[in-house]
Amino acid sequence: MSTLKIYNTLSRRKEDFEPINPPHVGMYVCGPTVYGDAHLGHSRPAITFDIVFRYLKYLGFKVRYVRNITDVGHLENDADFGDDKIGKKARLEQLEPMEVVQYYTNRYHRDMDMLNVKRPSIEPHASGHIIEQMDMVQKIISSGFAYERNGSVYFDVSRYASQFPYGELSGRKHEELLENTRELAGQEEKDDSADFALWKKASPEHIMRWPSGWSDGFPGWHMECSAMSKKYLGDRFDIHGGGMDLIFPHHESEIAQSKAANKGEEPVKYWMHNNMITINGQKMGKSLGNYITIEDLFSGNNTVLEKAYSPMNIRFFMLQAHYRSPLDFSNAALQAAEKGFQKLMTAVVTLQKLTPSDKSSFSVDELIEKSFEALNDDFNTPILIAQLFDGVRLINSTNDGKETITAEDLAKLQKFFNEVVFEILGLLPEEKENEQNDALLDGVMKTVLEIRQQAKQNKDWPTADFIRNELTKLHIKITDTKEGAVWSVEE
C-alpha cells in the first residue's frame, strides 16, 4: 500500500505522514461556538476530520482526537471588541450563558450523530480551562511577548515578528498587516493594531468573567485552543485542523502564542484546512437569505430547499468533493448525490448475493489498490468514490452474468466494500439511516412540544393553539397528560 500523504498548509505541499510518536497520533480540530444551531458550513469540517479520524484508526494508529467547544471569549468582531456571542444570546433570551451553551451543544451533538460523525476522544470546553489559559498568558508575559494594559493583556506581534516568522501559516507579512489594519474603536490601548488579546478586562455588562492578577475578565478567543491542545496533546502534536476561514487570525495567533510560551518550538507538525461551502455560487449568510441549518436540511423547512434530504445523502454529497476544494450546494447537486448514494447502497446489497465462479474476469486487487491510493493521496474521497463506482459497475455486470468472480475474490471484494463504505467513509445502510430519521423526528417533536408548553406557561394561548392546529394538519395528534404532552401520528 502507498504511503499516506497529507497536504500541510504550513509547508504548502503534500508530505508523507510520519507521526511524532508512532503509533500514537494527536489531532486537534477547532469545534463550534455554541450560540446557535449548526449550519451547513459546520458539517464540512466535522465530516472532513471524521474521515481523517476514521482512516488513521483503520491504518492502525492510536488516535487521540480533541475537538473543543467554544463557550467563552469569541467576540462578535475578531479584532478583540464587541460583545461575547454567547453572552449576547444569553441576555437576549434571559438565560444563564451556560444554559445557552448546553442547549446548543446538545443540538450540535444531535446533528453530528445524525451525520454519523464520530464523537472525539476529548471534547474540552473553553470555560473549563480558564486556569490553563491564565498560566499560558503568564508564560507569554514572562517570555517578553505580551504586555498588560488597563487590565487587559495583549500579544506583542512586533516583538514576536522580530524573532520569528509571523504570518508563516497564512503568508501574511507583519508590515502588510500594519498598512492594511485600520484603527478601530476600543483598540486604543494596544501598542500595535495587529496585536491581539490574550486576556480581556470585562466591561460592567459582561456576564462571563473570572478573577485574575490582571483584572476580572476572560481569555482571548485564540488562547483557548493553544492552552487546551497543549494540555491534552502536549507542546507539539501531529495534526491541527479546521476551516480555511480560521487560518488567519485564529490559527496564526495560535502558532505565535504557543511558540512564545514554548521557546520557539513549532506546536503542530501538519496543519490541515477544509475549504468553504457556497450556495448556488454565493457565500452562505443570514443577510443573503440562503442560510441553512443542518436541521433545515433534514426537515426541508427552508425556502432554499426543494425537499428534505437524509443525513447520508448530505454526507455522501460532501464526500464527492475533495476537502480542500470549494463545494457549491444546490438542490440539483444534492439530488444527484441522492441517486448516487442509492445506487451505491443497492450494489452493496447485490454484492452479498453474487454467485462465485471458477475464475475472475476482472482484477479485484487492482480496484482495491487504486482505491487506497486515492485515500493515501491526502484523503481524496472523490477519486475513491469514482473507484467505488467502477466496482459498482463490475458488481452489476457480474450479477447480470457479463463478468465472473471467484469465491476468494468475492470475499475480498465484500470485505473491501464493507470497510471502505461503512467504516472509513462512515456511510450507513438505509435501514440504519431510517432508524436515525425516527430519532431525529422524536427530537424535533420534543422541541416543538417544549415551545408549546412554554407558550402555555406564559398564557400565550394563540401560539399554543397555532402549534396544535398546524400539527393536526400534518396528521400529528397532541395529547396532554399529567406527565406532559405526547404526540402520535394518525393514520
Break the fold down into its secondary structure elements and pairings:
Elements: E1 5-8, E2 13-16, E3 24-29, H1 40-58, E4 62-67, E5 75-77, E6 81-84, H2 85-93, H3 97-114, H4 130-142, E7 146-149, E8 152-155, H5 157-161, H6 174-180, E9 196-201, E10 210-211, E11 216-219, H7 221-233, E12 237-243, H8 247-261, E13 268-274, E14 277-279, E15 282-283, H9 294-299, H10 311-319, E16 327-329, H11 331-353, H12 364-376, H13 381-399, H14 407-424, H15 430-457, H16 461-473, E17 476-481, E18 484-489
Parallel strand pairs: 3-4, 3-12, 12-13, 14-16
Antiparallel strand pairs: 1-2, 5-6, 7-8, 8-9, 9-11, 10-11, 14-15, 17-18
Helix pairs in contact: 2-3, 4-7, 4-8, 7-8, 10-11, 11-13, 12-13, 15-16
Q: What descriptors fit this protein?
A:
four-stranded parallel beta sheet, Isoleucyl-tRNA Synthetase, Domain 1, five-stranded antiparallel beta sheet, Rossmann fold, 491 residues, alpha/beta, flat
